[in-house]
Amino acid sequence: MRTALLTVVALGTALVVAMALRPPVPPSGDPPARPAAVAPAERPAALFVGDSFTAGTGASTAAGAWSCLAASALDWVCNRDAQGGTGFVADGRANTATFAPLPDRLTRTAERNLADVVVVDAGRNDMAYPAAEVVPVMAEYVAAVRSQWPDAALVLVVPAYLGQTADPADTWRPEVTATMRELAVRHDALVVDPVAEQWFTGQDVGGLLDADGVHPDDDGHALLADRFVAAVEAAGLADPALSDPRR
Question: How many whole angstroms separate alpha carbon 182 and alpha carbon 143?
């Protein structure tokens, strides 16, 4: 009897010691919290602003847009403010009544998106307007973008359709391009010019277009993404700083 009693006491003592050595359990009953894992480095946030090309019209999925394909290749987060039929002046309301030109969208776009890189790919739909009307609006818009994101990498893409080449009879594009280059100097931006850089030389673009004959298909968007990535890498902007002041 005495031996049995000593055994019970010993077991009870061991149990008390064991319980004392266990980490405390939170009142909720959840297991003790573990140290948080080291978070991966943040990726640069890219904001692509533009029209249906930027939005990805013609691609089989939204992720297949040239903008997001390029962002993925560069390990950037892909944010977009893209509305078909719009431009610096063109409002796109023939497509959707709520669409608006780029300047009218800037405040809301800035509220909703971080941007360490801003890529402006617009102007195709402005070709229906005189260059003298488009240029001052474009200049004000680019200045406003730089003011909103003072330290972001800024890329201005000269408007072009797939397969477009230089046309001596075209006076609109040279004037817009010259203004973009002036704005790039003024606002520390990179100009990417698909026509001057011969993105489409040697390409059978007939096999890169959607059924509408205007927008890129999946292969066309992939081509635009490849060319853009090459231009950004050549300019040394592939790894921009995390500069959005709201981070």
Answer: 12
Overall pTM surpassing 0.90 (yes/no)? no
Work out the pLDDT band at 26, boundaries 50, 70, 90.
very low
Q: Which residue type is seen at 121? A: D
Q: Per the structure block, which two tokens stand in for 163? A: 């397969």
Among 96, 93, 110, 97, residue whose Cα is nearest residue 146: 110
**Residues in the chain, total:** 247
CATH C-level class of 45-234: alpha beta
Q: Which residues, including other chains, have CB under 8 Å from residue 137's CB and lie 6 or more apart?
A: 88, 89, 101, 103
Q: pLDDT at position 42, please? A: 87
Per residue in 27-40, pLDDT tens? 333 333 333 333 34
Determine the Cα–Cα distance for residues 177 and 193; give it in Å rounded to an integer: 8
Are the C-beta atoms of residues 85 and 94 closer than 8 Å to each other?
yes
| Domain parsing of the chain, residue ranges | 45-234
Distance in angstroms (rounded) separating the CA atoms of residues 64 and 85:
19
Predicted pLDDT at 20? 34
Q: Are the beta carbons of 83 and 99 closer than 8 angstroms? A: yes
Separation of alpha carbons 190 and 100, rounded Å: 25
* Cα 27 to Cα 23: distance, rounded to the nearest angstrom: 13
* High-pLDDT (> 90) share of the chain, %: 80
